[in-house]
Specification:
It contains 25 helices and 21 strands. By secondary structure, it is an alpha+beta fold. It is globular and about 90 Å long.
Amino acid sequence: MSERQIGAPERAILKERYDLAMGRVREIEQEPEVPACFVSYVRRNARFLMQMDEIRARLEDGYYETHPEALVQCNREMYEDILPQNYRESFCNPVYACEKLGETFGKLLCFLSAQERGLIAYVFEDRMEEAAIHVELFVQICGILRLGRAQGSDELEDPEKTAASVKDALYWFESDYADVIGPRRIREMIDPDCRFFTDIVMNSDLDDVQYLYRYGEYITQNEILTARYLNSLPQEEIDRMADTWTEGYRMGFVYGRKPLEKKRTVNLIYHVGFERIVRRAIQNFEKMNLRPTIYRYAVSAQTIRGAYRSGVTGAVPNPQYDYDHREDAALMLDARFAERRVEAARCAYEEMKQLANEHGGPAVMETFGEDPFEPVSVPQAWSYDDRQQKTEVKMRSRLMQLSNQYIIGSERSFTIISWPLPDIASHEEDGEKQIDEALYKEIFHEILKVNTLDVPKYTKIQEALIDALNKGTKARILGCGQNKTDLTVSFCELKDPQKETIFENCGADVNIPVGEVFTSPRLKGTSGILHVSQVYLEGLNFKDLEIYFQDGMIRSASCRNFDDPKENEAYIRENILFHHDTLPMGEFAIGTNTTAYTAARRFGIASRLPILIAEKTGPHFAVGDTCYSWEEDSEIFNPDGKVIVAKDNEVSILRREDPEKAYFGCHTDITIPYEELGLIEVLGENGYRQELIRDGRFVLPGTEELNDPLAGDTGTPWRS
């Protein structure tokens, strides 16, 4: 279903356009008629489009229903070109494309190749409009290359003129279809009648793992073994996992005193292979009168934001490919295009305002365990210049304001939970990756334990921490050993301790598992250095990350991922600052989940934990927006009935004057693990001083039970 609810007559016209364009693609593959240097590029891309057309025809006539093994075979073939072993000679690789086609044409045509790969999603989801326009785009670019050929020669007559024509064609394609691509993304998020993924989950025979190939996503042992393992579990175990997830979502509305009864949809995000849990979750949500909306991660340069995938995904064929194309929008991003994107979103929200108003927010199931990825930055890839960075930041802010206006921020909630993939139990043997299935099951069971800990017990212990923190005006955090952290965090003012609290008592609701207390710090007086020897943020590794704060704002930051300091600076600017010149400290928290910490040490998997769990294994500090962005005026209460008053800081309060100055559209948590932690103490008026943690152990009376999982800890080093 398209964003414009395409009917049969319009679909017939689109199908005719698609067939005509594909007919031309077949002719081009046989006789490219382009200058010699482009022949290989054109033929390889034409063959990919022809391959996708054959798959489309077989999906349409039901061939794969009777020949499921053929769908398994074509799965690898669709992704063959970008797999690591082939990527070196792929035109989707900006380095190779520029090497073969020259820097100018290489960047432009590499962009085109990446956009054409979106056809996988369009074909499997039967998105005829997007399929048709992208095939037409390829034909148009081939036509420009053919017309640029010098008469009687195999060369371009005017390379500069032809390159400008190619770039213009790509730019205007993205601009002209901004009212197709962006609105489609919005509809997928809020319209339950977009049922492609829901139908797979609810109507497939999940006992036969060949259903995994119906997505069109890349399928590996991770997805197959996950599905088989979940199939081996009794229904009560599946119910326990799904119920924890959906109950966390419901309780987010309860604790936030938000109107769940007004909501009709919930957006589900998960990794392929977890359908058995998702099916039970959908059934649970139906009892809350909520229908699921499910969408794939972004495949268009217009909707991709960074290298992180948000939405349903299978295996990532090659994370370097995703990283290389994370800023492809640099080809067309200017003030005019940004305005077009925002206006298209505004019109879409207005058209679908009832659906938007009834949307409750996301229920996210993250996964972890894949091999750590350390990206390589290549100058041939598209990247934002300084002006585009500012344009992108402003555009994202405006899009976020629109989302908050129509999907009312104060009325929506969310929940997040994480589960391991089989890769977490992998090892190399004779040059081949082997997965220890018994070890995977053991790790999975331990994470199940972490995700379903006794919430009332933790709530009581965390109340003791909050009582001590509420008596102070600031906290001091010191590292130990090689950790250079020396940071003072200021608290907002507490006027009525009997009814108010500075820190939130985090149970297993919106943020599973249980195990933290957190606040939005007062920026003035929040200063010092935050240091972590190694941390993974959104799957990207940071080595020796140091961030210097002055009055709550990042003054400078560094890491040691690359030999060249400028590369490190660019890496941080892109993946922590998100192109802002600075960010405030939006959160200070103390993690209490020592069970998760010990499990990570015992299995040597700490470097692979998602931030959702890792943040519970020590103090953490978020840079960017506060935890309460867009809902600062909503009353939120702790389980003891006290209202949380620390929801704004000196930057977020500017929302009352200019939201673009108040919000940054990012929130990145950075955790110091217990073994790198020397001291956390609370400081207050009249000499008040209370130690909470010393040398990685809880010392505050009432919290000693948190040390029990740490007793006799002889696990592997934290950063294994």
